[in-house]
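Forwarding the complex inputs:
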Amino acid sequence: MKRILSSPATPYPQGTLGTNDNEKGDTMDTIEILEAIGKNASYRHASGERLLGILSAMDASESLERTAKTGDQHHLAVEFGQEIVSMVQSQVQGGYEDQEDDEPCPERDGEDERTPLSPDS
Amino acid sequence: MNTPSMLSEPPSRRGSIACVGLGMVLGSHLTPLARSHIEQADVIFAALSNGIVEKWLERMHPDVRSLQPYYGKGDKSRKVTYQEWVDVMMAEVRKGKVVCGVFYGHPGVFAWSPHAVIEAARSEGYEAHMEPGISAEDCLYADLGIDPGRRGCQHFEANQLLFFDTRINTDTYLILWQTGLVGDRSFKRLRTEPAYRQLLVEVLNKDYPLSHEAIVYRGATLPIEQARVRRITLGELPNVDITAEETVVIPPLSRPRRNRAMMARLDALDRMFENPG
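Prediction (whole assembly, two chains):
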C-alpha cells in the first residue's frame, strides 16, 4: 500500500505538493495522501481534473484515484476491506428526546395553536 | 520553606474523560485542542462516520478502540448500543484512565452517548469535558450558502415530526436530519421505505405545497469528495433514494410578519431613552 511520492513535475504551487515529509521523497500511503489533501486549501478545493493530476503526482493508488473520479468510496474496499468502507452506522447516533407519548408538555397543554406564550402564562 | 506537598507527592491518579469532535472531513477539520486530547489520552474510543477516518485516527494514538462493533446487525436497538458505549468508556474512567471519546463531527450534536458519559462521569466525581468539532450542520451552512441568522432555522430529527405534534415555522429554514430512516421506531433499521417518507410528506404538506423545494444534502467525509446537493420538490421526497447520512433542507415558504404592536412599544422606549429630559 506504500507509494513513492514522485517529484511534482508541475503546475502545482511550490511547497504545497507533499507539504510534510513528502518533499524529502518519503513514501506516502493512502491515509497520508488523504490527510495531505485534507489540510491543503489548494488541493482540497481543486477541480476534479486537477485533483486527479495531484493524485497522480502523489502516486496515489488506483482505488483512490477511482474514488476521486466517481465519488464512490466503495472503490477503497480493495485497499481497506469491505467492512471498513461500509462502516456508516455511526452516522446514526440518535438525537431527539424519546419522550413517552403521554408525557405532559407544560408549554403546550391547553395552549391555542400558534399563540405565543405571554410572560405571565 | 517547605515544598508544597502537591509538588512532592504525585496526586492519586483519577480517571477523566473528554469527548471530542473529529470534524467531518479527514485531515481538514480536526482542531489543535481536540488532537491534543487524543494524543494525551491513555485510551481512545471512536465512533466515526467512516472506516477510513478511523484508520487515520489510529495513526494518532496506539490504543484506539472502535465503538462500531457494538452495533447489531439489524437485531439490536441502537439505544442498547449507545448505553454500552457509555458503559465501556466509564469502565476505563473508573480504572483511573484518561479517556478520550472521539466522535465524528461535533460530539454533542445528534449524539446521545457523549452527553450521557459526561453526565455519568461528573455524577461520580470525575473530570469530564466536551470539546466541540465542526459538525455536519456547519458544513451544510457553508455548502448551501445558508446563514441561520438571516431567516432563522429549525432543526429536527425527522422522526420528531412523525412521533410528536410538532409546530413548524415556515418563515425559517427547516432542516430534517436522518430522513432516510424516518419512521423507524425499533432503532434497529438503517433505512426505511418510501411509504414512511410519504407520511413525513403528509405532515409537511400541512404547511408547505408539494411543489415547494426540498434540498437533499450530504457533506463530504473524504477530502477528495465534494458535497452532494440534490434539489427536488417536497412531492418527490418519498421516491428519491435517501441514505442515513443525508439531510433534507426545506427553504422558507413565507416571510415573517412585522410585529407592529412591539414596534410601537420599541418606538416609545426609544423616545424615552433618546430624550430622557
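Helices of chain A lie at 30-38, 41-44, 48-57, 62-70, 77-80, 82-85.
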